[in-house]
Amino acid sequence: MTRKLWKIWLDWRGFVLFVAVMLLFRSAIADWNHVPSGSMKPTILTGERIVVDKLAYSLRVPFTLARIAQWSDPERGDIVTFLNPVDGRQFIKRVIGVPGDTVELRRNRLIVNGVEATYETLTDEECADLKIRPSRAHRILRETILGQSRTIMVMRYPSDPGYSSFRRFTVPDGQYLMLGDNRDNSGDFRRIGPVARERILGRAHGVAFSLDYDNYYAPRMDRFFIDLS
């Protein structure tokens, strides 16, 4: 029996070592994550595979949240992956508030440290470039605040108007406030609260590839290799 096991090991050791190295690599250095929901539309679409830089902020012990070294912290505007504090599932959202920031949302108008964001409606041509189908239910806006600009989606007539607002919140030390770019359809700060620094796994670097689930999984070729950082 021992000789048989040894033969199996000799035959499969290369494959086993390859899998082990890949698991270590994905846990601590870089990963590629499938996006199954539309909470980050229009920045990230359903059916996209996102490359995540897990060395962006720190080096972790593989398969744990323990950090070996840390060289930076998430900044406002970063798109990050993290384990949400409610059920431990991996989420991807945008950092809106860092420790010490005061953040408020009034009918989907963002206010950070007393500065209110400005909003501009995207043209049909700009929406087409983002691969977002025209809809009477949503508005696609360019949100600009504190020197940063990004594209967000809001419902024209929210089914839950109360979800589009929250009172002024001061982000505690060691915590971060996350929102989805699809503001009326995202399980973010309004559902899970602030996220502890140690639960943040890495920063989204770019889109590896994109499949359109509503069109027989056809590849969206012009969404391949889009930079998100």
Task: Offer a concise description of the structure.
The protein has 229 residues and is α+β, with helices and mostly antiparallel strands. Helix content is 16%, strand content 39%.
Report on the structure:
The chain contains three helices and 17 strands. The chain is an alpha+beta fold. The strands form four sheets. Strands 1, 2, 5, 6, 14, 15, 16 and 17 form an eight-stranded antiparallel beta sheet that branches. It has a four-stranded antiparallel beta sheet with strand order 9-8-7-13, with no helix packed on it.
Q: How many DSSP E strands?
A: 17
**Beta-strand percentage?**
35-45%
Number of helices: 3
SS-derived structural category: alpha+beta
Rg, please?
20 Å
Largest sheet: 8 strands, antiparallel
* DSSP helix fraction: 10-25%
Mean pLDDT: 89
Shape: globular
Q: How is the quaternary structure best described?
A: single chain
Unreliable runs, pLDDT <50, ≥5 residues?
A: none
Could you give the distance between the termini?
Answer: 53 Å
| H and E order | HEEEEEEEEEEHEEEEHEEE
